[in-house]
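Researcher: Here's my situation. A collaborator sent me these components and asked whether they could plausibly form a single complex. I don't have experimental data yet, so a predicted model of the whole assembly would be a useful starting point for our discussion.
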Amino acid sequence: MTASETDRQLVQRAQRGDLRAFDLLVLKYQGRIAALVSRYISDASEVEDVTQEAFIKAYRALDKFRGDSAFYTWLYRIAANAAKNYLVARGRRPGADATLEDAEAFGDTDLVSESGSPEAVAMGDELAEVVAAALHALPDELRAALTLRELEGLSYDDIADVLGCPVGTVRSRIFRAREAIDERVRMQISGESGFR
Amino acid sequence: MREFSIQRLRHSLSVLPFVLLLSTAAYATDCEITSPAAEALRKVLSAPQGLRFEGTVLSERAGSRQFIVVSWPDAAGQGTMRRMNAAANPPLEKWPAPFTSAGRICDVLNVYSPSLGKGRIVAGRATQQLSLKPKDPLRLAYLVDLDAQTGMALAMVTAGSDGQVLERYEYADITFSEVGDRGATTLEAEPYSRGRIVVPGYFLVTEDPGKGIFVVSDGLATASVFVEPLPAGAPAGEGAVIEGATLTYTRGVASPKGRLLISVLGEVPVVTARLLADVVRPPRGGE
Amino acid sequence: MTAKDRDSEALSALMDGETQELELRRSLEAIAGDPALRERWRRQQQVSELLQSRRLSCPDVDVSERVAASLADRPALSRNPLWSMAVAASVTVAVVMGGQLVVPSAEESVSPLVSDIGGAVVPVMGAQPIQASLGAKSLPVADRQSQNMPLAARQVGAAYERLAHDRYRLLNAQHANQAARSHPAPYVFNVRQEIVVAAEATDGQ
């Protein structure tokens, strides 16, 4: 899967001490990790604290990551332990457990639950509508390239085969599709507070 | 040339195979335990085998204090403990059985001079005071209050050569099951491993040149040495910090034969850490 | 195509794992210099999640700055790696360090040692003071001789001290496992380590 290739490249650079690479991984997974942590902890500021701690622990343990599992699975494990330890340290019992099998079964997508405040959930819903509308409004060739990539998980080479065009064209179309969607998302966000 | 990054250095550990430049000196491996002080030392080193107990210990190091509820042994032959200041409802943790071996006391007597003094009351029990003075500047000093009945160390101070207290612990209360309950003595302890002498009084406990690590001990104190490549561009240098009785010493070596980063962790003085770093050489043929 | 567009396109390819090492490096450099590009990465990750799952996990959570700040908590070191001091310090270090030191003496300039403990001798209650009972000679411990040591050498020493601190954090657990078995009270070594939930430990015996 090509999304794992992204993680592999970034993890390798992070293992060599490149904090910028690790920053991109944090930006990519912080929402999903926070969602996991919020299955154990209800207080929003505590969720952020433990999410932060999970990433710090992950960075410090990066040497031990050998790539036997997906990076996200490994990170998920660390975050789950961090949340459990946090509860134990405060005399609380970890409740129902999000299992590792859940993380692995869903691969790069998380077991997305109704986590977060009502406002955050509403933000997410509104943004989902904007993205869906933007996707629908794309020219056919851009929409085709992006959906083959995002929804089918095909590599650029495979998409090029399917669409009968050069890889460079695939890359360009996907970029332009994302540009168009990003334009609408930015407009949506600029009016929202608390959602950067 | 790979770019040098302090971040990589600080948060990651690579390994470098090494060879050790060792002397051929050897110590006597048998000794006579005739004095009361040597006998007291033997009891301290033998504990807690043959005993069964529960108690509360106050541990002090590096400006922090921790009450620990301790018991020995569990069914698996390990000790259990809870750190009472570390968390609410602290989890159960394990601690390992100490090495036991008839030879260990001889190693300790080779490098420490024991003497007995008048004891005090500790945890409501009479004790004898055993002081272990190092025979050379290569190790720390210890003052032990051992239980008059069982010989177990109920309190212990680790001190530097200038007398400065580095860390200590003391039992606040302790309950022994019937001494002579021999059910505890059948537990298997890990055998005491004693290799070649590395620096005076310290012998190899484990050595894994392929992983860039070796461990030495004098029978009481232990030091672990880790060897890594020194990144290109980093200058030679050394530095150290002490936490409690544990010294961490790092040295960057840059020579035509190779570039090494040597880290020594141990309950040892800095001079010993330096000697341990001295014996490390790059593998033949360079890095 | 503008440079900005090229950076944005490279970012898009990075999302899909379709970049080579060189382009990856350039992307990371571009992001470091352009907060808007970093935000774009964050947004596009969220859009990707929405496209795939139609839900967004905790969109209001952003701990990235805090994580970055924690990991770079010694910015002076990370931005001034040891090698940048090497050029200025190399000659001085060679003179000061003089190869491998065995026993420091007052005549030799040695890197400063830091003791966290400080303080005077505290006599054990009810017993004789340690100094009197042990009567040991002082070990030659190097004091910080900052007024005599060149600045560059002090900087190198300070950097190695910080490295020692980090090595303690990285390696202490491994050392403690070994050291505990030779100590009359092995449990005091656990005190030095972070408390963890021991999966195998059970309450009651």
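Model: Some features of this prediction you could bring to your collaborator: Chain B touches chain A through 13 residues (CB under 8 Å). Residues 7-25+195-286 of chain B form a domain with the Phosphorylase Kinase; domain 1 fold (CATH 3.30.200.100).
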